[in-house]
Design a protein that fits this description.
This protein is of the alpha+beta class. About 30% of the residues lie in helices and about 20% in strands. The radius of gyration is 32 Å and the shape is rod-shaped.
Length: about 200
């Protein structure tokens, strides 16, 4: 049974605090711990730090963020909760990285998983192309292009050229006929026998 006295002295910080500042302890006569919640948390953190240091592991410094804010360990910025995705498994209900850092990490992971490239390697490829799309030679390159059969990376294209290759299903014969058609040359197949057509060269 918790004592109904208006307050209690903390054995750690020696402050007179309200009963609500102490966690329950059924082994104590008054049903409360001898140290306030703040002192217990500080003691636990220090104990954790000593255990980590004893096995040669580093301990991150605690950062006090304003109410409704959280520190992103990736970018080092304190941001409002609106800048974080929800995570029901986390103690504070928020993901470990802010939205911007998660997006950056997602792009990096996608590049490596799908193309086997780091961002630095992709940037080097763009520089080697002169900073423009390999096909139209004018638009900024934004999409890594690769052979769907071998997985080999061919270059970095603009959105339109990358989409065009996809529509042509990467077939060189179709792309050549499209070029012939655009140049105004004969492009229609010629009927040489019933059901047999000769395609233009």
């Amino acid at each position: 049974m918790v004592d109904e006295t208006p307050g209690k002295r903390c054995a750690g910080c020696e402050r007179d605090l309200p009963v609500a500042a102490f966690a329950r302890d059924k082994n104590r006569r008054d049903g409360l711990q001898v140290r306030c919640r703040e002192c217990v948390a500080e003691y636990s953190a220090e104990h954790y730090r000593r255990r980590r240091e004893a096995v040669g592991k580093s301990v991150r410094e605690r950062v006090d963020a304003p109410s409704g804010h959280k520190l992103c360990r990736t970018c080092g910025e304190i941001k409002p909760h609106s800048e974080w995705h929800r995570d029901g498994t986390a103690s504070d209900g928020l993901s470990t990285r802010c939205k911007a850092c998660r997006a950056t990490r997602g792009r990096e992971d996608h590049l490596m998983r799908k193309y086997g490239l780091t961002e630095a390697e992709r940037d080097e490829l763009i520089v080697s192309q002169g900073g423009v799309c390999c096909i139209c030679l004018s638009a900024p390159p934004a999409h890594v292009d690769h052979c769907h059969e071998t997985g080999r990376v061919r270059g970095v294209l603009c959105f339109s050229c990358n989409a065009a290759l996809g529509q042509f299903k990467d077939r060189p014969d179709v792309i050549r006929r499209a070029a012939t058609y655009v140049e105004g040359n004969a492009w229609k197949p010629t009927l040489v026998a019933p059901g047999v057509y000769r395609l233009p060269s």
